Amino acid sequence: MACCHGNEDSLPPVDSAILVYAYPDGSPAACLRLGVDQLLPAWSAWLHRLRAFQLAQDRAAAKLTR
Q1: What's the domain of life for this entry (predicted)?
Q2: Per-residue pLDDT at 8
Q3: Are 34 and 19 in contact (CB under 8 A)?
Q4: Residues forming beta bridges with residue 22, ordered by sequence position
Q5: 10 close to 2: Cβ distance less than 8 angstroms
Q6: Which residue has the higher pLDDT, 58 or 43?
Q7: Separation of alpha carbons 38 and 36, rounded Å
Q8: For residue 32, which of 21, 40, 24 has the smallest C-alpha distance?
Q9: What digits encode the pLDDT tens for the residues 6-22?
């Protein structure tokens, strides 16, 4: 197995990826095989959902401290 030390030019091209979503305990929530054109939109959507979840958690915690 080749090792890349910060030289992205030596990485092979990617045509698909596997994206695994996990619950906080580490158990898998979903596993998707995505084409390279689907990866960034899926990752962006996941980050958006994560941020919404974090904001909801923050609001719930703030209500408990009132």
Answers
A1: Eukaryota
A2: 54
A3: yes
A4: 28
A5: yes
A6: 58
A7: 5
A8: 21
A9: 555 666 777 787 877 77
22: which residues sit within 8 A by CB, 6+ positions away? 28, 29
Token output for 59: 């609001």
Question: What torsion, rounded to 10 degrees, do the Cα atoms 60, 20, 27, 30 define?
Answer: 80
DSSP3 helix / strand / coil % (the chain, rounded to 5)? 50, 25, 30
Q: How far is CA 28 from the centre of its chain?
A: 12
Tokens 């990752």 identify what position? 43
Q: What end-to-end distance do the CA atoms of the chain give, in Å?
A: 55
- The total of other beta-carbon atoms located within 10 Å of residue 34's CB is 15
Sign of dihedral through CA atoms 33, 38, 40, 43? Answer: negative
